[in-house]
Structures are given as structure tokens and as C-alpha cells.
Design brief:
Blueprint: E1 2-5, H1 9-21, E2 26-29, H2 44-59, E3 64-74, E4 85-86, H3 89-95, H4 98-104, E5 113-123, E6 131-141, E7 166-168, H5 180-186, H6 188-206, E8 236-241, H7 247-256, E9 261-263, H8 264-270, H9 281-292, H10 296-305, E10 313-316, H11 321-330, E11 335-340, H12 343-356, H13 365-376, H14 384-387, E12 390-393, H15 398-410, E13 420-421, H16 434-445, E14 449-450, H17 451-458, H18 476-484, E15 490-494, E16 500-504, H19 506-520
Parallel strand pairs: 1-2, 1-3, 8-10, 8-11, 9-10, 11-12
Antiparallel strand pairs: 3-4, 3-5, 5-6, 6-7, 12-13, 14-16, 15-16
Amino acid sequence: MVRFYTSNIYKYLQAKLLFEAYGLPLLYFKRSTAEYDEDYSLGTRELLRRAIEQVRHIVGRASLFFVEDTSLRIEALSSKDEDFPGLAVKDWFARVTFAEVNRQLPRSLRLRGATIKSDIALHVPGLQEPVYFHGETVGTISHSPPRFRKNPLYPWLTPKTFNGWFVPNGAERRLGEMSIEEAMEFDFRARALSALIERLEEYSAMLNAPQDCYSIHERIVDPQQQPFLFPPTGEAFIVVGRTCAGKTTFGNVASLQGRTVIEASSVVRSLRQPKDQHLSPFQFADQLLSTKGRDIVARRIVDLYNLGPDSSFIITGFRTIEELEVLRAHCPQVRVVLIDAAQRTRFARFLHRGRDRARKTPPSIEEFRRLDREQESFGLLRVAEDFADIRVTNEGTLERFGVQVSKVLANPSRPQARGVSTDLHPPGGLKVHRLYRCLVVLAQSGRSMTNAEIADAAGGTIDPDAPRYAGRTMTPNNVNKILKNAVELAVRSETITGETAYQISDIGRAFIRLLEELSRKPRTQV
């Protein structure tokens, strides 16, 4: 397990967000006294080396941990050999105002240059010297003070630090007012952290071990170590939804609350080999599920994180029904949260994401629809509401969605928030579930059937020992519409006479299994 030794909680939260995007856990570690001696005259490397030595005496030589220091160079106030304010940026910023600094700087933008630097020292057990990583961002100091609000989900994006004064080269706005996607491209600390994470992945590859090779299941508590910032809650969630619905933001809100967040896409990336680099993310995921099993990602997560009935976690981004089966089997307490938003809303977010990533051409609606179709082809998204315990409609602002997520996390049994519902399933259960009835007919027949044959069988008794189905009788046209809307669950074909016919797929069988399992075992109380 990797530990970040810092007194700055916002630094930790930023690092935790980036680590979890790569599927790596990160612990917060802080002493109750001063973090470590900070003698700025020593220079960056020597200061970090001494910090590592001091921390190592506390946590032991067998611990994998890192420390970070930030420095700043304002060109107009620095000399050739010395940065100003340098490593003392935290103390300097606390005692100056924007107006005071602005009066000292030239009016010409090209003479208002500044460079923010992040330096990290990593202690690796067995190595005598730390391993160093550096990230920096060059830009200019704005002519006017910041007039934007702090990001409620990512508190390091704020007007109350130098990020509120600083415009990176190549950007049109201050670092503090950027979206999280844009900020991750320009942020100096994110660059240093990314270099650190890449090195950890190299170590993992050399050891021929998975990316979580730093994790341990039994934690030895140091008497001087502060406990986790937020205690575990015992709650477990699987968050599903279409592209740009809000899954990642849900995970980010949970992460900022100290929850363990696991991104399924990060686990998929961890399984990618150099020989797979020519494949698109969708092509690789499709190949992985076809060769390793449609539940491979869920099985991997259960093993890596040792998940069980008492585990607390949030998993985002599952795409198959089989993944839900695996998690329900190991963690019956888990709740499924469906994040929903209209296509036009999601596409607007998709366009914004494209602008943040500085694409030369904006993404098209057809590109967006193709992404939807690719994700739906894995099977879960078309029928996610059948398995959801909580549904969140994310059509408002980021702040409103943050409130919705916080309400769900705080009280999943009764999340009192507009746009959040828990009463999702009809009282009749499987007897009135028309898709289930059609698929059971196909499963029990073991052959391809026409719409008329399915309608006739689904309206009567399928099994001599089963009760007669309730609900309205289905017509062949009803059957066709139902199965066309769940194309992954039943394969469509034509008979020799030209009639439409369907045969159940493996995904359809998984749908039946999970629905019947949920009907036998009461869902988590919501």
C-alpha cells in the first residue's frame, strides 16, 4: 500500500483521485505534530531527502511512501540563480494580496511569467536513496484578481491559492477555474504524480505482479499514525450509467469523502498488454470479455480488493450482467445505483469534455451515439433499471448532482433529494415482467422461436409446476418490440418462410439468473 505523507488534505485528495484513476489505492498519513522540518535553504532535493529520512524513522524502512513539496518562480521577482518565492510559496502566499503582487509586476503579459513546480520523493523499501519526480507548469499571472468560486467537488481548484492567479501557457483560463479534465492536463502536481504512478507501474511489471502489488490485506497500525481521514461505512455501491451520465463524478464525490472507489475501466486497462496497443478501448474490452469471460473484471476486483459481505466500496463502470452476478454473490449487501440523463444532456457534456481535451474538431452526435451502442452491446445498460436499487436523474448542475450523490451516500435507504428514486420495481415481480417472460420461454424451448410462438407460450403456463403468468396477454407485435429493445439478450433471425424469430443468448440467460436470484433473496433494503 502506498502512503502519502502530508499535512495538506487537498493535496492528498488530488493525489487519491489520480491514483484511483489508475486503479491504485492511496493512504493518507499525517503526524499529529509538525509534518517534517522544512529548511528552505537546503534546496528541493535535500529538503525532500531529509523529509524521507525523518518519516522513515516513524513508519519504518519497509513502508512505501512519498512526500511532496511545491515551489514557485515569478520571473519578474526572481534572480538568475534564485527563485522567488521558491519553496516558501505557502508562507509567502499567506501574507500577500493579489493587489500587492500586481503592483510589483510589469503590465506586459509576456513579462508576468511564472512557473509552478511540484517535486516528489518516493521511499522504496531496500533503496538507500529516494526516487525523485518532477512536474511543472509554465504560464503567466493574470492582470485581475480571481472572481470564480471554489469547485465544490475538487477543492484544490480554488481562487484562494496561486491557482486562482495563474493562467498556464496554452490555456484560456486560470488553473483554479478549469474543469477537472482540463486541470489534469495543465496541473503541475498532476504531472509529478503521473510520473510517480508510471514508475510504480514499472516496478509492478518488473515483479510480474498486478498493479495492486503494493496492497496488503492486514494493516499494521503505527501508534503515531493518524487513522483514516474518514472511517469506513460498511456501505457498498455499484454505479452504472451511459457515457457522460455522471459515473466518474459520483466516484469523485465518494472519493473526497474517503470512500474506496474502484473504476472498472482502470482494471480493464491494467489487463492490457503491449500486444494490445493497436486495439481501441472498446475492441480490447470486447476481446478481453470474449477470451477471459464476461465476469473477468468483477472477479479481478473481488480478488484484488478481497471483497466480502462486510466490505465498503464504490465500483463505477460495470458493463455486463455477469459482473453484477459476481459482486452480488460475494457482497449481497451491495446496492446498484443507476445514473440517468437524457441523450442531449450527455452529449452537451461530451462536447465540453472534447473542448477540455483540446480536440482539433468537436465530436459529432454520431460519434457519441456510436459510443452508446458500443457500451450497450456488453448487455447491462439496456436492462440496468431491472437491477437498480437507486436511480439518480442527473439533469442539473454539477453542484446539484453533488448534493444528490452525497444524499445517496449518507442515507441510501431514504436519500431525500430531488431526482433520486428508490421505488423502481413493480409489485408483481417476475410474473408481470414481459422481457423475463419472453426470455424464459426461449430458454426452456432451447430453440429459435417466432414472435407468435413466444407470445402464445408467454401468455400461458410454461412449466407444469409454475403458476400461470399474470399481466396482459402479449401479441406477436409486443414480443418483437420487447426483444428488439434488448437485442443483446436474444439473437434475431428469420425462418425459411420469412418470419422473424429469436433465440436466447448467453447474456439473456445471465439476465434470467440474476433476476431470479434477486427475487429469491430480498434486495438490500431501500
